[in-house]
Specification:
- The protein is built from 7 helices and 7 strands.
- It has about 230 residues and is an alpha+beta fold.
- It folds into 2 domains: about 55 residues; about 160 residues, no CATH class.
- Strands 1, 2, 5 and 6 form a 4-stranded antiparallel β-sheet that branches. Strands 3-4-7 form a 3-stranded mixed β-sheet, covered by helices on one side.
- Strand 3 and strand 4 form a beta hairpin.
- It is rod-shaped.
Length: about 230
Amino acid sequence: MSNTQVMDRETNEKPIPQQSRRWTILPIAIVLGVVALFVVIGIAVVSGVRGLVDAVPTPGDLAAVFEPEPYEEIGPVVISSIRDLANLTTIAVVEYTIVEKGTDEGWLAWARGDSLQLFAVAKIGAGVDLNSVSVRNVTLGDDGVVEMTVPAAVVQYVAVDNDATHILDRSTGVFTKGDPQLETEARRVAEEVLVAGALDEGLLVEAEANAREVLTDFLVGLGYRDVVVEFEG
């Protein structure tokens, strides 16, 4: 082998300088760094989008906002609100009757008799007095059910309709001017008859049923699950 060929082989097998290797590795590192940067940015973007989606309220979230928050106890505020209902009139009926009132003078009625026939109309209201309700009358169970005891329903008013109430007939004897209080007495009797008739028709039973419904709706509207209403007596 000639000297020239030996020198060429030595030249071809000469090792690459260290500086050239560094320049070869540097572009690879840059590429890897850029890829890693994009990966990090991608992860951040995905996390941000997911967080944004999670932050958007669902229909259930919106409905929950408008749902009343349940109370955890029966306090003075609730009791005061119940008392504000005061004399809770839950039913009013119109009754009418005909009342005959007078004195019986027997065979002398033509001379001394005094009688009248009254057509009476009245509006009768019944309900429950809640002014006496206190914390002692109301309890709250662990299941969110309110139990309360309130006064029994009573007749709260009897309002005679003076326009509709009138005398149908008035008879007086020849020798008497008639009792000026007779019509007043007839009206009093008419009120008693009208109230008795309304009670026989179940006025107070219906008044308590309506009061139970009103109180239940009122407390359920405050957030309690259910209401049990009992009446004294």
